[in-house]
Description:
Elements: E1 2-7, H1 11-26, E2 30-35, H2 41-48, E3 54-58, H3 67-78, E4 83-87, E5 102-105, H4 111-120, H5 129-138, H6 145-151, H7 156-170, H8 177-188, H9 197-220, E6 222-224, E7 227-231, H10 237-248, E8 252-259, E9 262-269, H11 275-283, E10 288-292, E11 296-302, H12 306-327
Parallel strand pairs: 1-2, 1-3, 3-4, 4-5, 7-8
Antiparallel strand pairs: 6-7, 8-9, 9-11, 10-11
Helix pairs in contact: 1-4, 1-5, 1-8, 4-5, 5-7, 7-9, 9-10
Amino acid sequence: MEYVIFAHGDSDGVASAALIYRYLKYTGASAKVVFSHPVGLISDLKEFAQSSSHVFIVDIALNEIHKEEVLSLLEKLSQRGRVVYIDHHPLLDPLPKGHGLEWVHDTCCSASELTFRYLNRKGLPEEYSRVALYGAIGDYMDETDWIKETLWQWDKRSIYLEAGILTQGLEGTRKEYDFKRRVVEHLAENKLPSAMSELVERSIRQASEDEKLRVWVREHVVKQGVIAYVLNPPGSVGRAANYARVYGGAIVGLAAEDRGATYVMSLRAVKDVDLNYLLRSLAKKMRVHGGGHPQAAGARVDKAMFEDFLTTLSQMLRDQISLTQQVFPARS
């Protein structure tokens, strides 16, 4: 029995894929891992899922523009095999009923936690909980009740060290899919990230690059409205977005990379902002691919529309913050 695992390429997605990979081996099934993202999922499904009867999708948000097309394709796939979709990204609208897939969705926690708890009930050994911990910590979702309880089963300091090596080692790998698959197979054997020398070397190198990035953002950040941004940062757009927010003194930090006629960007926000809702709403008004989590999200927009995007998003942010303050007024 052959499966295809579609996973996001960050530490949460990689850890989740490793848990599924291990579980499928226990059941005697074979699996291949395809790394994807919200915008590319539909094309990846068409390319890689057609020859397989069974599919797992993990840690990949449903893109508003492609949502119906993805669900329609999954409906067809589910008619001839098993389709399981595990995700924790907030949805703008409830998932329509009637689609023949097993939908495991909760914004409570990381995809890694959801995946482990789901597979643990089906027989995945408890000792693989530490793989889920790595992914949850890497996704900044390490304060759930399950995480706090599970950390007591392990040495907390060691778990955070291993999670840091995994997260840092994967940062900047982008389309190095073969390397990521090796990491999946390594974690699927419940081996420590620190036992993979290439991962350790990459993590140390990444730490140095992140420090250079921090200084670069501080010197190049631009503020427009309530958004502070940088273009083409020499490093992680996610971390650059966070630095832009801090050094720009803004509600939202944004970092964008030039990809031909498109800007691919990462956004980071303060509390009381819901970037996922704003970007998904914006996708229904203008040609923007976007979404993610309330305080951490991604988007793609044509470069010709970038200024309009910034202006529109700034106004939406002001409206959202104003509404939040009216509903929950600041204490005097």
